[in-house]
Specification:
alpha+beta, Rossmann fold, Elongation Factor Tu (Ef-tu), domain 3, 5 domains, nine-stranded antiparallel beta sheet, 34 strands, binds guanosine-5'-diphosphate
C-alpha cells in the first residue's frame, strides 16, 4: 500500500479494496479500519472542503467521497444489514417465508389506526374492541396487550383482522424506521366536523411511503356540522379518491362514539385487503415476527407482545427477540386466556424472556436456546459499540478538554439535582465561583431537588449538558434513557469532590482511573424479619444481575439513604445463590444494615478501572 500525501497529509490508500462502514460512522471509525490517524482524515476532509471533527458522525455521501479520495471502495452498512449478516452467521434468516408458493396460506390483515389528534383514533379502537361480534367473550376484549384480533363477517365468511392497539403514526414510523413492516393496511381517521388537518396529511404520507393501502374512516358523523362529503373532496387532492367518485379508496362514514358504521369499516378493510394485497404466510415453519410492546411485570418478569408474521409460535419454543432471548413459558391472548400456539398475524403476550425487548425488535424461533442466547449477546455487543460511538459524540467530563480544544463547545452546561435544596444551592454557588478562565463559560441550565428524571435527561440531550446528581439517583427510565442517549451523569455525595472534578475537567486535568459500573437493581417488595439475620428484603431484580458480596446502596424515593452496604446474603426460594438475574425474585440480606422498607431500591455496583481513551 502506498501512502501518497493529500495536501501534505498521509493516509493508507485502498487501491480499490472494499471498506465496510456502519451507517453514521465517524472519521475515527474510518481511521481505525484503515490504520490511519483520525486527525489526518480530519485534514483530508478539510481539503475536500468539509469541516468534520474526528468523532462526529459523517454522512454516507461524505464517507464515500473520502473513500474515493483514498481509493477505498466504501460500502455503507445499515444496522438492518448488519443484523442480517449476524443472523446469517448462525445460518438464520429473518423476513422471508420458507418454502414455495403452495406452502403459503392466507393470513388476516394487520391494521394500524392513524390520523390527526382528537379525531377519534382511541375511541375507534375501543369501539372495534366492543363490537367484536364473534369473540364469544362476555364483555369483549379486556386486556391491553398492544394488539388484538377481531372477527367480522364478509360475504358469509368469518374473517379475522389484527389491530395494532396503539393509535398514531409514531409507533408505525418508529417500527418502519427499524426496518420492521408491521402494518398491511392503515385506517385513516378523519373527523367529519374538522376535516383534513396537518397530521392527517402526515399519516397519509407515512402510509403511502410504506406502500400501505388506506381505508378512510370519516368519523363523528353524529356531530352537528359534520360534512363527510367535504372530507372526501379534501382527500382527493392527496390522491385518495373515493370509490363512489371512481377512485380506489374506500371511505366509510362512522361514529366511534355511537358505534355506527364499525362493521362496515371492518368489511372495507377486508375488501381492500382482498383487492390490493395477497396476504399469505407459511404457518408451518418456525415462527418469526416483531415485538409490539414489552415491559417488566412485577410478578411475571419480562412480558412482551409479539406479532407472529410467519410460522407458528408455540409454548416451549426457544426464541430470540432483539437483544432478549428465552423459552416461551406461556402465551396469553387479548382476553387473558392461555394459548398454546399462535399462527400468522396473531398477536400474543409472551412470558419467559430473560430481559425486556424493544418495540419493533424482530423475533425468531430457533432450534436451541443456546443459539438464541448467542444471537442476543452478539446483538447486545453490537448495540453497545454503536452506543459507545454515540456517547463519544456527546460531552462528558473526561473529553471536555478535547471538545474545548477542538472548538466543539465553548460552554459547559450543567444540570444539578440534589437531595435537599441547601446542597443544590451550595453546589451551584461554588460552581459559579469557579475560576474557569475565559475560554469556557459554565452555565447551570437547570437545578432541582429530587431524583434525576426523564425530563432532566431530555434537557441534557437537547443542550448537551452534563447532569450532576448530589445524593440522588435517576428514577424510572431516566437511567436507561441517559445510557441510551450517551448523557454523562455524575454522582457525588461530597460537595468539594464535585467541584474538584469539574474544575479539573475544565482545566483539562481530569484523569479518572476508576469508574463505577452499575451491576443490577432490585426493588424491595416485602420485608421479612429473621431473628438470626435481621431484616431480609424480598426483592424483584428489575435490571441487570444482583451478585452476592457486591457493594450496594439503598435508595428511597430517588434519594440515597445508605451509601455503602453489602449484599451479604442472596437467596432464591430456599437456596443460597451467587447471582440472580433481571425478572426474578430473590431474598437479599444487607448484613448488619436493617433500615429497609418496601419500595426501596437496592443498587449494586462495582468499581472498575477505566480504560484510557
Ligand atoms: P385521538 O386523539 O384521535 O385518539 O381521539 P380520541 O379517540 O381520544 O377522541 C377525541 C375526542 O373525540 C373524545 O372526546 C371522543 O369522545 C370524541 N369522539 C371520538 N369519536 C367520536 C364520534 O364518533 N362522535 C363524537 N361526537 N365524538 C367522538
Amino acid at each position: 500500500m502506498s501512502a501518497p500525501a493529500i495536501g501534505g497529509v498521509q493516509a493508507p490508500r485502498g487501491n480499490g479494496s472494499v471498506l465496510r462502514l456502519s451507517r453514521g460512522a465517524s472519521l475515527t471509525d474510518f481511521a481505525d479500519k484503515i490504520g490511519a490517524i483520525p486527525g489526518s482524515l480530519v485534514q483530508i476532509m478539510f481539503h475536500l472542503g468539509k469541516m468534520v471533527t474526528a468523532t462526529q458522525s459523517v454522512s454516507d455521501e461524505d464517507l464515500r467521497d473520502l473513500g474515493v479520495e483514498l481509493d477505498w471502495d466504501v460500502q455503507i452498512v445499515s444496522p438492518e444489514e448488519e443484523d442480517r449478516e449476524l443472523l446469517e452467521s448462525f445460518d438464520l434468516e429473518w423476513g422471508e417465508d420458507e418454502g414455495d408458493e403452495e406452502d403459503l396460506r392466507p393470513r388476516p390483515p394487520v391494521v394500524t389506526v392513524m390520523g390527526h389528534v382528537d379525531h377519534g383514533k382511541t375511541r375507534l379502537l375501543d369501539a372495534i374492541r366492543k363490537t367484536n361480534v364473534v369473540a364469544g367473550e362476555a364483555g369483549g376484549i379486556t386486556q391491553h396487550i398492544g394488539a388484538y384480533q377481531v372477527a367480522t363477517e364478509v360475504n358469509g365468511d368469518e374473517r379475522k383482522i389484527t389491530l395494532i392497539d396503539t393509535p398514531g403514526h409514531e409507533a408505525f414510523t418508529a417500527m418502519r424506521a427499524r426496518g420492521a413492516k408491521s402494518t398491511d393496511i392503515a385506517i385513516l381517521v378523519v373527523a367529519a366536523d374538522d376535516g383534513v388537518k396537518p397530521q392527517t396529511i402526515e399519516a397519509l404520507n407515512h402510509a403511502q411511503a410504506a406502500d400501505v393501502p388506506i381505508v378512510v374512516a370519516v368519523n363523528k358523523i353524529d356531530k352537528e356540522g359534520a360534512d363527510p362529503t367535504k372530507v372526501r373532496g379534501q382527500l382527493t387532492e392527496y390522491g385518495l379518491v373515493a370509490e363512489e367518485y371512481g377512485g380506489e379508496t374506500m371511505f366509510v362514514d362512522i361514529s366511534a362514539k355511537q358505534g355506527i358504521g364499525i362493521d362496515e369499516l371492518l368489511e372495507a378493510v377486508i375488501l381492500t385487503a382482498d383487492a390490493a394485497l395477497e396476504l399469505k404466510a407459511n404457518p408451518d415453519q418456525e415462527a418469526q415476527g416483531i415485538a409490539i410492546e414489552a415491559h417488566l411485570d412485577k410478578g411475571r418478569g419480562s412480558v412482551a407482545t409479539v406479532l407472529v408474521q410467519r410460522g407458528t409460535l408455540r409454548v416451549g419454543d426457544a426464541i430470540v427477540v432483539g437483544e432478549s432471548y428465552g423459552r416461551v413459558r406461556a402465551m396469553l391472548d387479548e382476553n387473558g386466556n392461555n394459548v398454546t400456539e399462535a399462527g400468522p398475524s396473531r398477536p400474543v403476550l409472551v412470558l419467559g424472556l430473560t430481559t425486556v425487548p424493544g418495540a419493533g425488535d424482530n423475533f425468531l424461533v430457533v432450534e436451541e436456546e443456546r443459539t438464541a442466547r448467542q444471537v442476543a449477546e452478539k446483538r447486545a455487543a453490537a448495540n453497545r459499540n454503536a452506543l459507545l460511538a454515540r456517547r463519544n459524540k456527546r460531552v462528558s467530563l473526561e473529553d471536555l478538554d478535547r471538545a474545548l480544544k477542538e472548538g466543539q463547545i465553548q460552554q459547559l452546561n450543567l444540570i444539578l439535582k440534589g437531595d435537599v435544596s441547601g446542597s443544590v444551592e451550595a453546589l451551584e454557588d461554588a460552581l459559579l465561583n469557579l475560576d474557569v478562565g475565559d475560554d469556557v463559560e459554565l452555565r447551570i441550565i437547570d437545578r432541582g431537588v429530587g431524583a434525576i428524571t426523564e425530563s432532566n435527561v431530555t434537557l441534557a440531550v437537547a443542550s448537551d449538558a452534563i447532569i450532576i446528581g448530589f445524593n440522588v439517583r435517576p428514577e424510572g427510565r431516566a437511567r436507561t434513557m441517559s445510557e441510551r442517549e450517551g448523557v454523562d451523569v455524575r454522582y457525588y455525595s461530597v460537595i468539594y469532590q464535585a467541584i474538584e472534578e469539574i474544575e479539573a475537567a475544565l482545566k483539562g486535568m481530569l484523569k479518572p482511573e476508576y469508574e463505577e459500573v452499575q451491576l443490577g437493581t432490585a426493588e424491595i417488595r416485602a420485608v421479612f424479619k429473621s431473628s438470626k439475620l435481621g431484616n431480609i428484603a424480598g426483592c424483584m431484580v428489575t435490571s441487570g444481575t444482583i451478585r452476592r458480596n457486591s457493594k450496594a446502596r439503598l435508595i428511597r424515593d430517588g434519594v440515597v439513604v445508605a451509601e455503602s452496604v453489602n449484599i451479604d446474603g442472596l437467596r432464591r426460594e430456599k437456596d443460597d445463590v451467587t447471582e440472580v438475574r433481571e425478572g426474578f425474585e430473590c431474598g437479599i440480606n444487607l448484613g448488619s444494615f436493617n433500615d429497609i422498607k418496601v419500595d426501596d431500591r437496592i443498587e449494586t455496583f462495582e468499581i472498575r478501572e477505566k480504560p484510557r481513551a
